[in-house]
Amino acid sequence: MSNTDGLDWTNDIDDLVDKLRLDLGFLPYDPTPHGLYTAADLYEGMDGGFEATVDQKIYRRARTAGSPPIAPVEMLAHRLHDHGITVALDEFRADKQLVGLMGGHAMPRGSAGYRQVVALGRELTIAGFCVATGGGPGAMEAANLGAASAAMAEGDVEALVDTLAEVPTFAGDPDSFIGAALTALAAIPDPQRSLSVPTWFYGHEPSNPFATDIAKYFLNSEREAGLLALATSGIVFVPGGPGTLQEVFQDGAQNAYETFGPSAPMLFLDNPDDPGWWERSGVLTALDRAFVDHHGQPRAGRDLVAFVESIDQLMGRLGSGRG
Questions:
Q1: 95 exposed, middle or buried (CB, 10 Å; 0-12, 13-18, 19+)?
Q2: Partner of 105 for a Cys bridge, out of 51, 66, 136, 169, CB 3.0 to 4.6 A?
Q3: Torsion angles phi and psi, residue 182, rounded to 5
Q4: Residue spans per domain, the chain
Q5: Tell me, what's the pLDDT at 17?
Q6: What residues have CB less than 8 Å from 98, skipping those under 6 apart?
Q7: β-pairing, 305-308 with 235-237?
Q8: Pairing between strand 235-237 and 266-269?
Q9: 3-state helix/strand/coil string of the chain
Q10: Which residue from 96, 147, 128, 55 is spatially nearest to 318, judged by alpha carbons?
Q11: In the predicted model, what is the mean pLDDT of residues 45-54?
């Protein structure tokens, strides 16, 4: 890369990275990544258990380095890394229609809600959309699993979910939880592409391995804004915790102000294990108010907010992902 004065900055960047490595010592991550991660990248070392993986080595480094006050040189390394991920992410999404899936990390494998989101991930992928999630377990794992297995027979996917359900949550036994996912991934003959955007800020939660392309960030705020902005074909919300609610209102603000371009659908799908959750939560009432300006006029995107009762109804609101 060159500036307008004809100076070549490539050597300057290389020199900077060399200095970072000298100042910081061994780093378990590349400060200047040239592509997105894969499950194989993050779970290298899994033979020694979850704690021995590259992913957890980076998390431990981030936790230690992130203890206030974070050293400026380490912060610079994080920023360089995250910039590289953003560049790779922009390249990945250039020719795709992305639909986001936001939902809780605690949704257990094998539950009715989990199976519903797996089916949704499959339907979106078959329709030509690219599924994007926050990359964690629960609803996010289900969506990426559904996308990855979209070319498989429905019965074979159900069998995969049945096997995964033998280790329903990650809290009790992370090694078995991740091991089961990696075994299931190996049983998918042709994983269809999907995206996840996790963060080492929540690195104690495993990044699910079913996304073919993983844009993992150090800085959670950059990750959150980017994840919501890139889902230009819409976002589906299923019940979750505080993180999901944050994403609802952040996405609502971005749509109402058209921060990143035209507004996109915001679709709310109930969990069959807890029907009526969205209505009881009060979220939709509060969100509706956010789409009215100080003159009482509707803001952009208000007509794109909808509660949907089924996957078929949801797909009808999104339209076709092809072409």
A1: exposed
A2: 136
A3: -65, -35
A4: 10-90, 95-318
A5: 75
A6: 129, 130, 131, 132, 195, 230, 231, 232, 233
A7: unpaired
A8: parallel
A9: CECCCCCECHHHHHHHHHHHHHHHCCCCCCCCCCCCECHHHHCCCHHHCHHHCHHHHHHHHHHHHHCCCCCHHHHHHHHHHHHHHHHHHHHHHCCCCEEEEECCCCCCCCCHHHHHHHHHHHHHHHCCCEEEECCCCCHHHHHHHHHHCCCCCHHHHHHHHHHHCCCCCCCCCHHHHHHHHHHHHHCCCCCCCCEECCEHHHCCCCCCCCCCEECCECCHHHHHHHHHHHCCCCEEECCCCHHHHHHHHHHHHHHHCCCCCCCCCEEEECCCCCCCHHHHHCHHHHHHHHCECCCCCECCCHHHEEEECCHHHHHHHHCCCCC
A10: 128
A11: 97
Give the alpha-carbon dihedral of 151, 178, 269, 219, to 10 degrees. Answer: -110
Task: Report which residue type is found at 44.
Answer: E
To the question of domain 95-318 being in CATH 3.40.50.450, the answer is yes
Q: Is the pLDDT of residue 276 over 80?
A: yes
End-to-end alpha carbon distance in the chain: 34
Q: Encoding tokens for residue 200?
A: 């080492």
Q: How confident is the model at residue 204 (pLDDT cuts 50, 70, 90)?
A: confident
